[in-house]
Amino acid sequence: LNCDRPSPHPSMSGLHNDSKVIITVVEARNLPAADSNGYSDPYVMIKDVHGLHMKGSHTKTSHKKKTLNPVWNESYEFEFNYKLHKLSFKVFDHDTFGKDDLLAKLVIPIDMFFDQQEHDRWFPLRNGPRIAGELRLKIRTIMAFPIIFPGASLLIPEPHLTLGLGWDVSKKLTVDLDASVIGLDASRKEVDFVSFARLTAFGGAVQHTGDNRTGEGKGDDESVKIDITRLPPDVQFLAVTINSFTAVPFNKVKSAYVRLVNTSNGKTLAFMRMSNMSDHTGLLFGYMKRDPAGSGWWSFHSVQSLTEGRMYRDTLGHAGAKIV
């Protein structure tokens, strides 16, 4: 097998599947004093981060005069796509003359709100290593794409699918994630596969669009297109693996995700954010399974089993028994 890595190929982009997040900045308490009178004139900035649609500008609350315990009760609604992995806030002291003073910062993983329930809580603010008060927020999401959890399964509604993998560029680490799809027979024996080393399988029924070695670009960084109607009858499973070819653990990869998309309309069928993971380099995302009764239907089964290894065979060697 020739494992020389082919040149990057333009990856699939677009397919925003925009969701909504509703943020109410309620109040703050015990903020630092920035002015000589022992108070601050605080306001909150919601930062325009990657994946949050703010049209290129940050959003600010009104500023409250001479207080360390301001109350705002101001609500904002934003659309976001699957690239969003955090919400970022800064609290400033407003100055009529001169530059506003930074009082504190707050970063919250968006994953906390994927349950679509309203979260009303106090969050600790920091200025460097120091606690700098607390900020009370109400946050709720309205999801346009389904978050899939380990053990979940879904019926695949149509035969043309795209597996999308994405992550953001890191200035400190060289990150190269690789998506692979492996066809297995009824005894779980490998029949054929696609990966960065082999871009086409099953006579073109499964096609890898090419290797992205950096995470640069909009939309999905790597994608695999699948036409299940063209798969040979001995293929009973399609296993989906993600591996870090550069051996950078998933928990150090910025904003990584994997998703299964209905190619015909761009709708995301299953989405998994690869954050808050331990220091592993392999993932069995899940597998597609042909109905053994011969109905022609396929289903997707989420596994989300973490393994070691830079190549798909390493992952299947550790987690292949979970394909049932």
Structure description:
With 324 residues, the protein is mainly beta. 2% of the residues lie in helices and 44% in strands. It has 1 helix and 21 strands. It has one helix at residues 312-319, and strands at 19-29, 42-46, 52-53, 59-60, 71-80, 86-93, 101-109, 119-127, 130-142, 153-155, 160-166, 177-184, 190-194, 200-201, 206-208, 222-227, 237-244, 257-262, 267-273, 282-290, 298-307. The strands form 4 sheets. It has a 6-stranded antiparallel sheet.
| Count of distinct strands | 21
The percent range for strand residues is: 35-45%
What is the succession of H and E elements? EEEEEEEEEEEEEEEEEEEEEH
Chain-averaged pLDDT: 87
Helix content: under 10%
Tally of DSSP helical segments:
1
Structural class: mainly beta
Strand order across the biggest sheet? 10-21-20-17-12-13
| Termini separation | 28 Å
Radius of gyration: 23 Å
Shape: elongated
What profile does the largest beta sheet have? 6 strands, antiparallel
- Poorly predicted regions are 1-16, 212-217
Oligomer: single chain
